[in-house]
């Protein structure tokens, strides 16, 4: 069940990797990108720092510790979304069968939950009954108390071409000495493709000497693999996988710019002509715009600047994993790296940013630093600090009035004061350097809902 080109792009998009739909990346390159993204989503180096991996080197999972709770991984952004949905009376903000990557993560948690209840045998099947994956959890090992390793065997069949081996395995699971209650999991074809790719990638990482006990000979044709916790991509991974410095249509090296707005880049006239219908509203918005250059610092660096010398600050954002303690420790190193600039995933292309002016009226950062008296220091700081970020929050920076050109800051601040409650608005932006961004002050995009 090989993924088509369109399916590969859809699978990447389910991981929030948004490539141009007409990208000229080869099928092989798209597959490699998806495989690397799945490895990043498994936080693979954390559990498998070297290959081959030997699960028997780890203790058996302690049954008193629920595997289902331990195997779930989520970010602060997802936690916030869940909490907000519950306040609005919605139980699950991530409904099934809409995002194959989220479906996969929920299916893995469901398998762990059923294993906690004493079940170990599963069939993944789509509603049209085109494809199925037979899978059994052979054993569960413990990398640490929050990281179970599900050792599994699996076999994939197209239901139009079932194998004798699969029939025999099913028959032995239904009756006999090795009978098991089989739990069926409805899974779309795209989710099955993600699961198969993950299982095949991990299968080749197992040490050849590892041979767990199987139930009977019908399991010999199955493939041995393992599943570890899978979660959302981190901020740096999101930026790396989404980065596009080339043509806005296909991703190839860009040679030309739109002659009207001089902002969107193309590899040539073919892509430019093809993109005109989609680009026209943006072009109209940007043409003849006036830009101001702002010097920024990473949002985490601003936090450090307001702390006493020697204070360690751990910075987290919506992409930060809530489970791995070492992820927070890495933020210190991340903040040091950000002293040399913020990752640029947008290249030279314009992108929409939200600009928020810090003010006591909004309870902004400076107002929350113990300076609540409007008659003193807070009055001096009020309106001298902006937070600027894109929709994915891969670009999230602070601009201080005394950094760079004060006139440019004031011009942008004037635009913000005409926005929502005089505190925030949306602007077009272009990265102009490692620590500078150009903001358009008189050609604004449509109001965004984020």
What key attributes describe this structure?
single chain, 450 residues, alpha+beta, 7-stranded antiparallel β-sheet, 5-stranded mixed β-sheet, 14 helices, 19% strand
Beta-strand percentage?
Answer: 15-25%
Distance between the termini: 37 Å
Major sheet: arrangement of strands: 8-14-13-10-11-12-9
How many E strands?
Answer: 14
Q: Report the average pLDDT across residues.
A: 84
Question: Which sheet architecture does the biggest sheet show?
Answer: 7 strands, antiparallel
Look at the helices and sheets and give the structural class: alpha+beta
Helix content: 25-40%
Low-confidence stretches: 362-372
Order of helices and strands: HHHHHHEEEHEHEHEEHEEHHEHEEHEE
Shape: elongated
Rg, rounded, reads 26 Å
Tally of alpha and pi helices: 14
Overview of this structure, please?
This protein is α+β, with helices and mostly antiparallel strands and 450 residues long. It is built from 14 helices and 14 strands. The strands form 3 sheets. Strands 8-14-13-10-11-12-9 form a 7-stranded antiparallel sheet. The chain has a 5-stranded mixed sheet with strand order 4-1-2-3-5. A hairpin with a 2-residue loop joins strand 13 and strand 14. The two termini are 37 Å apart. About 2% of the residues have low confidence.
Task: Describe the structure in brief.
The protein is of the alpha+beta class. It has helices spanning 5-14, 27-41, 44-47, 67-71, 76-87, 100-116, 164-174, 189-203, 235-242, 269-286, 299-305, 325-338, 377-381, 406-416, and strands at 121-125, 131-144, 147-158, 182-186, 223-227, 256-257, 265-266, 291-295, 297-298, 351-357, 385-390, 396-400, 424-433, 436-440.
